[in-house]
Amino acid sequence: MVTKLKEVDAVVVGLGWTGGILAKELAEAGLKVVALERGEMRTTADDYAVPNIRDELRYVVRHDLMMDTARDTLTVRNNPSQEALPMRRLGSFLPGDVVGGSGVHWSGHTWRWTDMEFKARSMYEERYGKAFIPADMSIQDWGITYAELEPYYDRFEYTAAISGKAGNIGGKLQDGGNPFEAPRARDYPLPPLTPILASVMFDKAAKNNGYHTFPRPSANASRAYTNPDGAKFGACQYCGYCQRFGCEANAKGSPHVAVIPFAMKNPNFELRTHAWATKILKDSIGKKVTGVVYTNVLTGEEFEQPAGIVLLCAYVLNNVHLMLTSGIGAPYDPASGAGVVGKNYCYQTGAGATLFFEDRHFNPFMNAGGSNYTMDDFNTNWNFDRGPHGFIGGYNIGGGFNTALPIGYRPVPQGTPQWGRAWKSATAKYYQTAMNIGASGSVMANRANYLDLDPTYKNAFGQPLMRMTFDYKDNEHKMGRHAADTVNAIAKSMNPTAMNAATARTDPWTVVPYQSTHNTGGAIMGVNPKNSALNKYLQSWDCHNLFVVGANAFAHNASYNPTGPVGALAYWTADAIKNRYIKNPGPLAPA
Amino acid sequence: MMKISALSLCLAGLIATPALAEGDAARGEKKFEECAACHSLEKDVNNVGPSLAGLFARKAGELENFRYSPAMKRSGIVWSPQTLEAFIAEPQKAVPANRMPYAGLADAGERADISAFLAKTGK
């Protein structure tokens, strides 16, 4: 039996970055907002404080802050000719499962994606001709511009306490910043973090090779900070427990620090935890949504929450899954290319080298998301001519460490036995003397990479699992080889005692081990309802009172981490709803 | 610079009791931003750290509704401007194994500003 509750103005599914931003903004605009979060409440004071948070076994090995695959998971395969099998343990990516979502356990890298992504198809066609883009590469323009998003990037950076160094303010290049970034109105709210030794060595080597390094912009407060809403951040202590942990010092820009407390203080807002959304309801003609059905996972009770506006703000894959199970938008069919929901699912690729210096002591336990230098010479640098290399997209390179913890961080030179006395001796010897240089690469959309519902396997609620069909294509192989060559050339120029060279990922993608939680696409934004699920305001083309906010809207995946545009698009959507939609409900962009 | 340092050393030598720099509460309020992400100044409002309301009348580890480290409970500290400034100079040295994730405040003048601010707000 489903208990029908009293209607509210807006219901938010998932309370992480996008849900937190929208809940706060819409509650402050006077809307009655209810948020449904599948996980439980967690706070810095009760859950992320020292010493309990520094528990690699609990948070990294046992995934304390992540989704439970015994309740819901997805099936995976590389191509449509294979039978997909369920991912029974978390591996390649780690969706969050508490109040704050993945914004609790991210490391904080915050980038501004530029028109090189938003206008990818038109820019590459204009420069290299239509034939340069492979026939099966389904990249398309996003329908939004960097100039439109700039004030919202700014808003997110000041909300989330980003430390960094501007490279281009109003068209004027700034010493020490990224010369390839798009112009920004002003600098970051906080100066860069102090770089660690390994990163200083990388910086010097990359500069000697003619590259343009700069401190990685990151949501780790380099000093105490109060954001424009009044959220207070402590200074980063470089404790090394960033990725997969809540921050013990309130120094990491996370939704449970930066935005959610302001929604919680507002009498217009109500949070329901342990609330698992199973279906979005539509009206009889299917032109509007009417609310959300959810299950309280503690009691098994089912509720219907009617709402004037539904905001899907869960993890990428869950947003798309809810669209598919609720029958909103035409499911994508890879054979015909028709349909939109599930289309253009993308991931990321990369290549990394480990360098050993017997005379160095790196103290790898000290670091933060932003304590590393990075370079964009083969990424947002449009002057880098992709023509001779035959690939689209790019990669950025960083050097140093990020969350090098005692159980998992065990660098040893290739050829070392993988167990026993020789391994023990090598791991003790090399722990202090190793550093990494890594490239993170884009993945362009491909006709054969997509999400749909699995025909066989079901979750704890009896719903079909999401099925992920994904593999790296020739474009990514070519880029990966280029990235590995660049990483290895920089690494060799540093004359390490020993080195595990970078290699391109050219084997079929697998769901183990961990690679990146940067899944994108599946419900993408665009200008045409025939090839996109959402308009540029992340509003469903099919039901105008449904907004689907997150990296699901990305038409392809860049080399950059996704949270910058995820946060900016949440503010962009909030403004569109507050300033336009509430006054005149209906499609915000012409079909 | 050398001259000034030498002079301040002489001045310090003239004062018999351990010198406490006169703090500036206004400057301290600004510096307190470093503490405010974890410490509230409202009574009974604990965050990552305990409330600092009425600090200078308390023994360390005294608030019943805050989970202190055993080290802090055992420390025997009674909070005063002197003991606070000694503690925040290098917290892990002053009370080893306490669980405050803060490396310390090296500048004695800034430490004095913070205790001046806390003395003012605590009244």
Major sheet size, sense and barrel closure of chain B: none
Envelope shape of chain B: globular
Q: What is the radius of gyration of chain A? A: 23 Å
CATH superfamily of the largest domain in chain A: FAD/NAD(P)-binding domain
Shape of chain A: globular
CATH topology of chain B: Cytochrome Bc1 Complex, Chain D, domain 2
Which CATH class of the largest domain in chain A applies here? Alpha Beta
Oligomer: heterodimer
Number of domains of chain A: 2
Averaged pLDDT of chain A: 97
Any idea of the CATH class of chain B?
Answer: Mainly Alpha
Distance between the termini of chain B: 38 Å
What would the average pLDDT of chain B be, to the nearest integer?
86
Count the helices of chain A. How many?
A: 14
Number of strands of chain A: 24
Q: Terminal Cα separation of chain A, in Å?
A: 39 Å
Q: Which consecutive residue ranges of chain B, at least 5 long each, have pLDDT under 50?
A: 1-19
**Helicity range of the residues of chain A?**
10-25%
Radius of gyration of chain B (CA) equals 15 Å
Portion in strands of chain B: under 5%
Task: Output the keywords.
heterodimer, A: 591 residues, alpha/beta, FAD/NAD(P)-binding domain, 2 domains, 8-stranded mixed beta sheet, 6-stranded antiparallel beta sheet, 14 helices, 24 strands, 23% helix, 19% strand, globular, B: 123 residues, mainly alpha, Cytochrome Bc1 Complex, Chain D, domain 2, 7 helices, disordered N terminus
Question: Would you give an account of this structure?
Answer:
The complex is a heterodimer of chains A (591) and B (123). Chain A is an alpha/beta fold and 591 residues long. Chain A folds into 2 domains: 1-142 and 254-347 and 446-471 and 516-591, FAD/NAD(P)-binding domain; 194-237 and 349-441 and 479-507, no CATH class. Helix content of chain A is 23%, strand content 19%. Chain A is built from 14 helices and 24 strands. In chain A, strand 12 (275-282) and strand 13 form a beta hairpin. The longest helix of chain A is centred in the C-terminal third of the chain and has 20 residues, at 474-493. Chain A is globular, with a radius of gyration of 23 Å. Chain A starts with a strand and ends in a 10-residue tail after the last helix. The mean pLDDT of chain A is 97. Chain B is an all-alpha fold and 123 residues long. Chain B has 7 helices and no strands. Chain B has helices spanning 2-14, 25-31, 33-36, 70-74, 81-89, 91-94, 108-122. The N and C termini of chain B lie far apart (38 Å).
